[in-house]
Amino acid sequence: MKTDSVEYTTFSGWVDPPGNVQSPLSEDVTCEVAVIGGGLAGMSTALRLAERDRDVVLLEAEFCGHGSASRSAGQVAGAPGGDIQLLSMLYPRRFPGIVRFAENSAHFLERLIERLDIDCDYEATGNVCAAVSRGQMGRVRRVTKLLRKAGADVELGTSAELGIPRGFLGGMRESVGGMMNPGKFSLGIRRAVLTSGARVFERTHVTEVTPNGDHVVIRTPGGEVRAKKVVLATNAFGGELAIAPKRLSVPIWVSEVETEPIDPARLAALRWTSRSGVVTQHNIMENYRLTSRNTIVFGVRRLQRGKNYPLPPRKPDEAVVADLARAFETRFPALADVAAARTWGGWVAITPSWLPVAGQTRDGVYYSVACNGHGLAQAPYVGSLIADLIVDGEQHEDLKTLWAKKPTFPRPLMMSAAGLRTIWTVDRFNDLFNGSRRNARRGSAPVN
Ligand SMILES: Cc1cc2nc3c(=O)[nH]c(=O)nc-3n(C[C@H](O)[C@H](O)[C@H](O)COP(=O)(O)OP(=O)(O)OC[C@H]3O[C@@H](n4cnc5c(N)ncnc54)[C@H](O)[C@@H]3O)c2cc1C
């Protein structure tokens, strides 16, 4: 794969920034609820509150959708992220609730797209957790059993049975969910928020959140907001604000690459008939998906730890793009001559438990911050549930599943730069040892 003419972008490859960025806050205002952060979580919270006739202010440092909201791979997962075997072992009682939450998130998203009539190229294809080696196939079988037992809608099959390229041996399809253009989706929600009753201030960086008796004061360079309630929806950027719970999440940079447009006949030859998005079973996944513009978007494989707040704007590293391109050639040997056209990345928030978390700080500030790189459906769902909690005073069952009883979190394991490099090395060693390159050439393997 050629990578010498790749366009590196600091925003997203899916869409251009909006042309109507809103004015920053330039005076002191009061409101009932202030939402900090205009990603999917924050926009969804603000929209729901406005729809329920609450006086809400949304404060966003750049423009709504500027963060990972518009930068994701656009794969709408219907099952939890992370290591399913580990999660089911560590949280046996909560696990079925987490599975239900993941499926409900995907359904919520589908209803939202329909209700707001957002044109985001959504296709309900499901996603496949795919194996590139016999070892990974064993893992997929075990994961399928665990998810089925917890009530998930998943099926096991060979690559031929699942309609995915023969560079993968087989896998497990999550029937719920699919794929979309996440840039179009976040700009669609942004449009809905801007036309709702919410007051939206963009280019408004919140620098401090201070509880003060029966209200909270939010400082920004242009003015203060005095709110009765506050929702922190700052995702990976959360650690910048002193009010955010310590160690709630670690900021991690992940990258995506998009190919040049590929001849439809060559795409058809891949026999990717289900069009399902694919994620591998490595410790750090590789993701692959088709797009409506006849390209393939692929990424992750490498997690890079953010060091200090504020998190800087950045582009993917050349070495990471080259590594992703090597993986692409292995999974799609017939497309080895296709060039990479563009690349982008974004910050995700990884929690010490690898579970999505929501809760309240000791000062009563709500937070919905971390979906561990699976927030395309989960972040807006949690945001909407927090809005309902604020209005009704009652927690939905799915919110209860995620709710942190206390805002205290353990030190995250294996999240140092050295730890993350070690995990990448283990994955590459397993690729070599299990012959993922050889398997890619051979194709489909028996499932049982
Ligand atoms: C490259 C990449 C690929 C991904 N692929 C997938 C995928 O295929 N499927 C999936 O489910 N998930 C995926 N994700 C994860 C998903 O995008 C995120 O989990 C989800 O978008 C996070 O929620 P959010 O949208 O609320 O966060 P963000 O979009 O990051 O929103 C946070 C917002 O808060 C604002 N903000 C932060 N601090 C302040 C402050 N102090 N003042 C004002 N504003 C502030 C930021 O500017 C930002 O706009 C991916 C993420 C990345 C980066």
Q: How would you explain this protein's 3D organization?
A:
With 448 residues, this protein is α/β, with parallel strands linked by helices. The protein has a single domain, classed as FAD/NAD(P)-binding domain (3-Layer(bba) Sandwich), CATH 3.50.50.60. 32% of the residues lie in helices and 23% in strands. It contains twelve helices and 20 strands. Strands 1, 5, 6, 7, 13, 14, 15, 16, 17 and 18 form a ten-stranded mixed beta sheet that branches. Strands 2, 3, 9, 10, 11, 12, 19 and 20 form an eight-stranded mixed beta sheet that branches. It has a two-stranded antiparallel sheet with strand order 4-8. The longest helix has 21 residues, at 95-115. The relative contact order is 0.21. Bound molecules: flavin-adenine dinucleotide. Flavin-adenine dinucleotide binds next to helix 1, strand 13, strand 18 and helix 9. Residues 36-42, 59-62, 66-69, 71-75, 77, 205-206, 233-237, 240-241, 254, 256, 299, 345-346, 348, 371, 373-377, 379 line the site of flavin-adenine dinucleotide.
Short description:
By secondary structure, this protein is of the alpha/beta class.
